[in-house]
Design brief:
Number of strands: 6
Number of helices: 1
Order of helices and strands: EEEEEEH
Shape: globular
Strand content: over 45%
Length: 77
């Protein structure tokens, strides 16, 4: 485990992030040739999210993250 600051750490290549709304969450992004995926584990909401695509381009990760950010933004407190 590597702690960068109070809001960001990394463990076994998983990102450990502290978010004001989502609490402590665990995130991983990866992929292989022509595919990418994200997984989020958000214990505060008993929520796991996995998104995968069979496309991989310069903006794929950014576009996938934008979709996830919109989903997380719609979570009610």
């Amino acid at each position: 485990m590597v702690k960068i600051d109070d809001t960001f750490s990394s463990g076994y290549t998983w990102r450990v992030i502290t978010d004001e709304k989502l609490g402590t969450l665990y995130k991983h992004h990866g992929g292989v040739f022509r595919a990418q995926c994200f997984i989020y584990i958000i214990p505060k909401y008993n929520l796991g999210v996995f998104i995968i695509t069979n496309q991989s381009g310069v903006n794929t990760a950014k576009d996938m993250q934008s979709v996830l950010d919109e989903i997380f933004g719609s979570i009610s407190l």
